[in-house]
Design goal:
By secondary structure, the chain is of the alpha/beta class. The protein has 7 helices and 5 strands. It has a single domain, classed as Rossmann fold (3-Layer(aba) Sandwich), CATH 3.40.50.1010.
């Protein structure tokens, strides 16, 4: 098995507690219980900020998972902000959802092997994957694999 550095964005953590989507909740639980062995798992300070905006008891539940799984937080840097602007400028992420571009850029700048997300609208999407990797190559960054928890 190849050990990888994976960035997990907020939607994955949220699906651990989603009652509206039992199948994704089940897959996410399997991801956290069985699929992480040997991989280094990261979040970012952006994920932490998004969690802070959550109502209780969700906020405490999410913080508990981060502590229990020893998820390491990456910083949102100016370098990542500039790269995210390129994703938006080139139309791969809508400007209104620029935080999605920031999640991808944080993962890329920190040389993550993959980004794990349930955000099928703006992140786990062929146009986004192809587009951001094109920009990454042009700017001298590595390509990134963008997948759902089910695909890990």
């Amino acid at each position: 098995m190849i050990n990888m550095k994976l960035y997990v964005e907020t939607s994955v953590l949220n699906f651990l507690f989603h009652k509206d989507s039992p199948e994704k909740k089940k897959i996410t639980n399997i991801f956290f219980k069985e699929k992480l062995t040997g991989h280094e798992i990261y979040i970012s300070d952006m994920v932490l900020e998004e969690i802070e905006k959550s109502p209780e008891p969700r906020k405490s539940e999410l913080k508990s998972i981060i502590t229990k799984k020893k998820l390491k937080a990456l910083k949102l840097t100016n370098e990542a902000k500039e790269l995210a602007k390129e994703y938006v400028k080139n139309g791969f992420i809508p400007e209104r959802y620029s935080t999605d571009a920031l999640h991808i850029a944080i993962a890329v700048v920190n040389k993550m092997d993959g980004l794990v997300s349930w955000n099928m609208q703006h992140i786990v999407k062929l146009k986004t994957i192809v587009g951001v990797n094109e920009i990454n190559r042009e700017r001298g960054y590595p390509e990134i694999i963008i997948i759902t928890p089910e695909e890990v």
